[in-house]
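retry 2 of 3: previous attempt timed out while embedding iron/sulfur cluster. Reduced batch size to 1 and resubmitted. Inputs unchanged:
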Amino acid sequence: MAADMTPLIVPDTVIPAGPEATSWTDVDPTIDLWAEIDRLRKEKNAVILAHYYQDPEIQDLADFVGDSLDLSRKAAATEADMIVFCGVRFMAEVAKILSPTKTVVLPDLDAGCSLEESCPPDDFAKFVAQHPDHIVVTYINSSARVKALSDVIVTSSNAEHIVRNLPADRPILFAPDKHLGSYIQRQTGRDMIFWDGACIVHDMFSERELVKLKARHPDAPVAAHPECHEGILKHADHVGSTRSILDYVVEHPADTVIVATEQHIFHQMQKSAPGKTFLAAPGADGTCNCANCPYMELNTLEKLYLSMVNEAPRVEINEDLRLQALKPLEKMLEMSPPAKANQETKSQNGKGKAAA
Ligand code: 13P
Ligand code: SF4
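retry 2 succeeded.
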């Protein structure tokens, strides 16, 4: 077994490699990976779900591309036997929690998230115990154990709506993203305390460079993800989830839009509004090379293919933990505003028939 497919035990989530697992470097570079992945998708009745931050070639062959809420809903409703999750580990875990009888694979099990890593479950349990009167509202970018300690899960697309609908007389403990939490506090005026976590990608945008970019493009609106710090959000004309940013830039009459989120979303923007110009919000050095999620980019076409061949790396969750994490996730789905029709992006290029 090659080194990069060695079975790993990550806290609370066992992700074994399959018996025939081989390294992606062993994949024959001459095979047509698109055709092979498509064959496996049909043969194994698999659905390929991809986040907007995935590499464009993965987005194009996925059955569905969406934000974390869209993808959770899709995973909960699918009739496929196998969910191939092209995103990061917490997203694949959510798919397994919501659809325990399905095989859930993740092309690279090291695809973590800085927000999840900022919030170790044992430390979080102590923080929660110190604030017994608070409602625990946890961002979906967290581990299954942290979710299990929470009252309700939120994503960037439903956080404000859910917080507004929580009992007004109770304070809120929000984790792990302090920027999203503070944004929700500014929007709702709720009494909130925060875990000190941040996304390494969205934390890198520079207010100073953004102000300079806006001065050069005074008619361009700014669309930003709420994981950005306040210095960016205060200049934004639209703040929302990846999908809402996509909808905004496509629907807005401006022909140039400044975008403050991970750069792979530009792929769908260019496909949906080919005549428009999308400018990346800059990092401190005046470029946007920082806006690349190093976890998302671990997933490649070769690893995606291997994960379908081997049905591994696979997400498995202890049943007690799954049931504990399921409760606040179900609460989120129950409290979320209804999905608009066609809210996720169905791949137009993918050759496979969606099993979901
Ligand atoms: P969305 O919920 O907007 O897809 O965001 C997920 C994420 O990880 C952003 O960094
Ligand atoms: Fe996590 Fe940030 Fe990557 Fe999203 S962009 S998966 S929050 S590290």
